[in-house]
Amino acid sequence: xxxxxxxxxxxxxxxxxxxxxxxxxxxxxxxxxxxxxxxxxxxxxxxxxxxxxxxxxxxxxxxxxxxxxxxxxxxxxxxxxxxxxxxxxxxxxxxxxxxxxxxxxxxxxxxxxxxxxxxxxxxxxxxxxxxxxxxxxxxxxxxxxxxxxxxxxxxxxxxxxxxxxxxxxxxxxxxxxxxxxxxxxxxxxxxxxxxxxxxxxxxxxxxxxxxxxxxxxxxxxxxxxxxxxxxxxxxxxxxxxxxxxxxxxxxxxx
Length: 254
Hints:
CATH architecture of the largest domain: 2-Layer Sandwich
CATH topology of the largest domain: Ribulose 1,5 Bisphosphate Carboxylase/Oxygenase
Number of helices: 8
Radius of gyration: 24 Å
Distance between the termini: 70 Å
């Protein structure tokens, strides 16, 4: 009869696995414990769907660059928005122009607000107000704009092009402010207009507020516009900003 090797599990090499949703600079390793009790208090995630004897602990391991970036500030402290933007820029370690993101925890799900950002985040969008020339271009299959704004009167003429505009997200609709009552409102449409809403079943908001290359003041103004639209400190529980490849910085809400 063969005897069990007591140190067998301890000598196993770390098993590399892929998990969806990992942020930049994260790796994981999988450890198979002999019991669930052995993992309590270690801050590790357990695959509870597996039998007790086969449960796997997923331990996230940050990259060296991430750890060095996180050491540049106190991640437990809440910073003023202007200071937080500077910290995120200094902690960003991407070689490309990273995207500035605002992540917010609110008091309830189901929130959806339209926000006009003072400064466009990244690429400047070309806005077209639908008219007869637009219909002619669409008949030829030509789409040379990023946003299409239309009045209620023009909508019947755009409906035949739903298959062309719909997949591109260009069909005017009232939810994103691109379907308006009259021409005056159409001309007043802001290219920086964006819809900010919570996740389907969670009180979480994720939105873009700029690029690393933008001026600090522009990013701050965009973030303030979103925070105000979401109700400020009355409805926001916590808020953070980060770049594509950087640790997140907690924001002061008051």
